[in-house]
Amino acid sequence: MLENLVRKYWPILAIIAFLAIFPWISPETFFVDFLLLLFMYAIIAGGWNIIGGYTGYPSFGHTAFFGLGAYTTAILVSRFGIPPFITAILGGLVAAGFAFLIGYPTLRLKGPYFAIATLSMGFVLQILFLNLGPITGGGEGISLPLPPWRIEITITIVYYAMFITLLATILTTYLLERSRVGLALRCIRDDELAAETSGVPTTKLKLISFMLSAFFPGVAGGIYAYYSTYIDPFTVFTPAISMFAIIFSMFGGAGTVFGPLIGSAILFTIDEAARYSFTVPGIDLIVFSGIAMAVVIFFPEGLVGLLRERIGVKIP
Amino acid sequence: MRLLAQAIVNGLLIGGVYALMSLGLSLIFGVMNIANAAQAAFAILAAYITYWLFTLYNINPFIGMVISSVLLFLIGTVLYKYVVRRVSELMAFTLLYLMAMFLESVMVFVWTNLYRGIRLPYLSTSISVGGVFIFLDRLVGFTIAITITAIVAFMLKYTYFGKAIRASIQNPIGATLMGVNVEKIRMISFGLGLAISGFAGSVLGIIYPFYPTLAELWIGLMFAIVVFGGIGSLTGTLIAAIVLGIANSLVGTYVSSVWAPLVAFVVLILTLWLRPTGIMGRKV
Asked: Which tens digits make up the pLDDT trace of A220-249?
């Protein structure tokens, strides 16, 4: 059993093992720092993938969940001194709760109404958090207490936290894909009317899928808040995060287990490399949105779909 | 009392601009069930075109807005024919959202994210009617908005093209059987929707300062108006725009104008929850 598992999945297990020991063998903290941000985007893209890729209801405001998670941690840690790893989970739950609030009225409808509602979700929360000063610190944001140990140790801890959350996101997606619920979600994506006629409780499943998709970015937001020790509404509720979630996920392959991770790995690396080599601000957004449009038109299955089709590699 | 009257008059005039901004979106949404997430970005693009024509070539903005709306009509038809038509209705939303992001980042690249404005000194005055001030630029914007809405409504009701559009909305297959080239109607409607945005963006640029990412603020408001008014009903869009204009003006006067986007969002969610057909739309 275990032997079979190892034989079948050895490349993935090898990568996991390598990443697990990476902070100890990395020549510089820079790379650990880089990887943990990559993990963060992969978590957000992976979360998006559950509702956008598997269920076929793309969300255009995933920054809302990331930001809610970040603020939950920031408020609970700085005001009440609750340990950050509990608050990160709570942040995920708050994000899922907000997803319920938005999803309940809009996911009963078919068509673009859900997309429309999510479009201004992040923006509205940004305004709300900017103007609820007594609770959220308004435009000045919230500073979290600095961790009592050296910066390298903080980065290592945060690295593992992001890594575990990413593994949880991918494992959840994998198990979801193999379950009846996952099958039902794909039915909704491919033909919602047929799914409904076959007795699939579409509204309920769409809602569960949306809440699940909000949970992981919420957790990532909490870890990010602890890591950056300072957040404000402009950095955590930014359209860039919503956009990257969609682009990374679709580039890698929406509706596949590893698509969002592969997409994030490639595009985030390019983005960071470009940031250090030539400094024309904003050009990455032009290039990425251009690439993503081409992906939507020419190969909607993304990179994973392309590899499966052309080379026949079996990537889950 | 005077404050209230002033707030309502302001709201009414702003409602006209809201209506003009949402009209193209409403048309495209109604005719082909495509929610054009790039509508606001195109409107801002039009504002920049008119702005450039004005500042670089000294072309009067009222002529400039005609030029930019013709340009947008061309862009719209080409975009529909070669891009939007290739994907499903649902993917069209994603595609147009990415298009909006692309346009915004290109505009930031070309014009930076600083505030610009099409300044016409002769319009920046106000007339006083019984103690209530009416700003001239907003009045002109309102007049343009109502005129264009009336033209579009007239066209939809009485011309062959308008009847063909309505037939394509009600029953595409039936319309095809009656000899209507539905694909062509859709292409022209898409272009027309963007052309209206050409006027809307230019009017916006005359009244308010603008910058590329302003589109993100507007698109939520525009969708709220179209959904609240009811998909497929231009009258509904007009009424919803004026209601939201007055509501936002009242909130701005008595509470704070920062909450305006929140008002639109709450209206959107409540409409989808309680009455997805909006004020006077067809069944969802």
From this structure: 999 999 888 899 999 999 888 999 999 999
Domain assignment present for residue B251? The answer is: no
* C-alpha A120: how far from chain center: 18
- When CB atoms are compared, the residue of A56, A119, A130 closest to B219 is A119
Q: Are A189 and A300 in contact (CB under 8 A)?
A: no
Q: Are strands B132-135 and B126-129 parallel, antiparallel or unpaired?
A: antiparallel
Give the integer Cα–Cα distance in Å for A246 and A45: 7
A123 to B216: CB separation less than 8 angstroms, yes or no: yes
The Cα B160–Cα B167 span in angstroms is 10
Q: Is B111 touching A (CB cutoff 8 A)?
A: no
Burial of A81 (0-12, 13-18, 19+ CB in 10 A): exposed
- The pLDDT of residue B282 is above 70: no
> Which pLDDT does position A298 carry in this prediction?
87
The residue assigned the tokens 């950095």 is A235
**Region B137-154 average pLDDT:** 87
- If one counts the domains in chain B, the total is 1
- Strands B126-129 and A230-231, by their bridges, are unpaired
Choose among A117, A127, A290: nearest Cβ to B261: A127
User: What is the DSSP secondary structure assignment for residue A146, as one 8-state letter?
Assistant: P
Q: What are phi and psi of A143, to 5 degrees?
A: -100, 135
Is the residue at B108 inside a domain?
yes
Q: Would you place residue B241 in the very low, low, confident or very high pLDDT band (cuts 50, 70, 90)?
A: very high
Span between the terminal Cα atoms of chain B, in Å: 41
Q: Give CATH for domain A2-310.
A: 1.10.3470
Contact predicate A43/A219, CB 8 Å:
yes
Tell me the pLDDT tens digit for each residue of A267-300.
998 888 877 776 666 777 888 888 888 888 888 8
Residue bearing the bigger pLDDT, A137 or A66? A66
Provide φ and ψ at A60, rounded to 5°. -115, 20
CA A104, CA A99: separation in Å to the nearest integer? Answer: 8
Angle between helices A151-178 and A29-48 (to 10 degrees): 30
Question: What residues make up the domain containing B161?
Answer: 11-212
**pLDDT, mean of residues B59-72:** 91
d(CA B95, nearest CA chain A) in Å: 6
Domain presence at residue B264: no
ipTM: 0.88
CA distance B201 to B186: 22
Residues of A in contact with B261 (CB under 8 A): 120, 123-124, 127
Asked whether the beta carbons of B196 and B152 are under 8 A apart, the reply is: yes
Q: Which residues of chain A from 180 to 239 reach within 8 Å of chain B, CB to CB?
A: 239
Tell me if B222 is assigned to some domain: no
The position carrying tokens 């978590």 is A43
- Please report, for chain A, the start and end positions of each structural domain, with discontinuous segments joined by +: 2-310
Q: Give B122 or B200, the one with higher predicted confidence.
A: B200
Q: Which residues of A touch B97 (CB under 8 A)?
A: 60, 115, 119, 246
Cα A302–A306–A312 angle (5° rounding)? 140
